[in-house]
Amino acid sequence: MMSISPYSLNRRQLLGAGVSAAAAAGAAALVGTGTGTAAAQSQPVGGRYRIDLHAHFLPPEYRAALISHGYFTVGGYPTPQWSPEEAIDFMDRWGIQAQALSVSDPGVSFLEPREARDMARYCNTYAADLIAREGQRFGAFAVLPMPDIAASIEEAIHALDVLRLDGVILLTAYNGVYLGDPRYEPLMAALDSRAAYVFVHPGSLPSDAKPELPLPDFLYEYTFDTTRAATFMMTTGVRNRYPNIRFQLAHAGGTLPFLSKRIGVVTETPLGDAALPPVSLLGAPDLIGSYFYDTALSASEAAMRAVLAASDRAQIVFGSDWPFSALTLSGSGDPAPDLGSVFTAAERYEVEHINPLAQLPRLRDAVE
């Protein structure tokens, strides 16, 4: 059992329906007090306690396949190197207790179907082996050989039931077909039956499907694609039909929180005989509020206040986006100081530690 003293709390006292006032006060005492003045925000909150639910890995064979297929950049960002040792060093420097690893865009869908199945199994087995060695520092979300639905169901069952990974990662769309499309129904049913935690990550758009602007996708297109997928899953009723799936949206949900009023306008407007989708957005505010939102590359006051206006603090989880954030996180200290502009120290402890572990029981038990 890893010792994280003096920052370890009795998790069973903190987890549950919510954090009691006494537990919140205890967390504040451990990580500091106050809401985060300008001076305090520049300092580490203290301790290696953060649980990172938006962190990527590139196992050797996977990275080699990316390069051999011309993926010298991912979303416009240079394809990074990765190793477990580098990841642990990063975590130690930035006060992160554990990371839930995932394969980023483009997943394995750039490969031929058989190669994609083999690569997904390789990545997921690599993650399981890493967890067996370093289970107190790593969890993992399984990559699936999408858009092959039958193979993806098989791999999801193997990853969740046999390898015991912590969830799965899905891209917002595959070959232009967004999550929420009826073609994905059998996979959603399989994930719902396992109450799976599903990390939704954006993917790059082909050049003929977006405006020609001289900026990389990760700066802005990624956020729009997350919004498209999240809205489409509500519009087509996926969120209603599969309520056991817990969806985490990357990068604070893209633009979804900011657009929540506009997307939910159907809820407040009598449309009479106006045409509606097969399942309308009448419940949009509740559905938007039920997504989980990570802080990766979005730990700003503007983004967090937008999320809080559309959801609840319990739905926010910490994310670093490492190693794709390596250029901005190259030193050590507090990886998200601007969170102090929005949250008290105790509230930050909820966002960065309690909320993530509440969703991943295997990882929670490993780090307690």
Q: What topology does this entry show?
A:
Elements: H1 11-14, H2 21-31, H3 38-41, E1 50-56, H4 60-68, E2 73-74, E3 77-78, H5 84-93, E4 96-102, H6 113-134, E5 138-143, H7 149-162, E6 167-171, E7 173-174, E8 177-178, H8 185-193, E9 197-201, H9 221-235, H10 238-241, E10 246-249, H11 260-263, H12 265-268, H13 284-290, E11 292-294, H14 301-310, E12 316-317, H15 345-359, H16 361-367
Parallel strand pairs: 1-4, 4-5, 5-6, 6-9, 9-10, 10-11, 11-12
Antiparallel strand pairs: 2-3, 7-8
Write up what this structure looks like:
- The structure is a single chain.
- This protein is an alpha/beta fold and 368 residues long.
- The chain has one domain: TIM Barrel (Alpha-Beta Barrel), CATH 3.20.20.
- The chain has 16 helices and twelve strands.
- The strands form three sheets. An eight-stranded parallel β-sheet has the order 1-4-5-6-9-10-11-12.
- Strand 11 (292-294), helix 14 (301-310) and strand 12 (316-317) form a beta-alpha-beta unit.
- The termini are close together.
Short structural summary:
This protein has 368 residues and is of the alpha/beta class.
Spell out the helices and strands N to C: HHHEHEEHEHEHEEEHEHHEHHHEHEHH
Can you count the helices? 16
**Any idea of the CATH class?**
Alpha Beta
Radius of gyration (CA) equals 20 Å
Report the major sheet.
Answer: 8 strands, parallel
Class by SSE composition: alpha/beta
Report mean pLDDT, rounded to a whole number.
Answer: 85
**Fold-level CATH name:** TIM Barrel
Uncertain segments are 1-26, 28-45
Reading side by side through the largest sheet, how are the strands ordered?
A: 1-4-5-6-9-10-11-12
Total individual domains: 1
Strand percentage, roughly? 5-15%
